[in-house]
Amino acid sequence: MIRVTDGSKIRTITIDRPASRNALTSEGLDDLAEAVENAGQSVIHLHGEGTAFCAGADLDTVAELNQDSAEAFAERGQRTANAIERAESVVVAGIDGFARGGGVELALACDLRVATPNATFAEPGVQLGIFGAWGGTARLPEIVGLGDALDLALSGRVVDAEEARRMGLVSRITDDPRAVAEKVADNAPDALRVVKSRVRDRSSIGVQAAREAEAFGELVAEHAEDIAATRRATK
Question: How far lies 217's CA from each of 161, 189, 221, in Å?
């Protein structure tokens, strides 16, 4: 269900269950979290096989849950989304085609969400009497704002790539999301790691500022020769 291909700079993680639009079972969630956490590359490219990014939770799995096991399944999905968000690697979601429910929630946990023109998004859980519970109720309003978050979550409607871009649900639209991941991976790995951790820091402004200054000092010291060479070349 989860296929990993390693390069020197990029780990490609493919959700490989196209007959089910890459819906995830409990095992699939665990395997995805493990693939993210074990990455040694500076960038992860997460995408789906076939015509979907991810349809979210496998409904055959959900249909067998009781109240306690449903809560545990939601917590499993949350752990996987948290693993993506907290990874040292920059995680680029390449979204081509169908993203629904938990698939949208996993994309929300990524650092960059890059869609093709064919991408579509929806939170259709309300149509089944449920909702996405892999951290989406927290991340969605943070990323798109309260108004658009409530619109998506309460209506269950489908939005295309252009509308998703307008509301901030995706970072950009391109025919080749992989190329974006490759471009990011051309940058210095330590700088990528530090910038991700600083931007995602939820501490107070004062604490963030101190940490930012410290991290900047460390990077300047580490890359002093590169900075000096660039300065000489531009004179």
Answer: 39, 16, 6
| Domain presence at residue 64 | yes
**Is 50's pLDDT higher than 90?**
yes
In a domain, 10, yes or no: yes
Count of domains for the chain: 2
Q: Residue 145: what pLDDT? A: 95
What residues form DSSP beta bridges with 172? Answer: 114
Residues 6+ apart with CB under 8 A from 80: 29, 30, 32, 33, 36, 106, 134
The DSSP code sequence of 186-221 is TS-HHHHHHHHHHHT--S-HHHHHHHHHHHHHHHHH
> What does the CA dihedral 41, 35, 132, 86 come to, rounded to 10 degrees?
-40
pLDDT on residue 229: 80
Within a domain: residue 193?
Answer: no
Q: Does the model's pTM come out above 0.85?
A: yes
Q: What is the DSSP letter of 101?
A: T
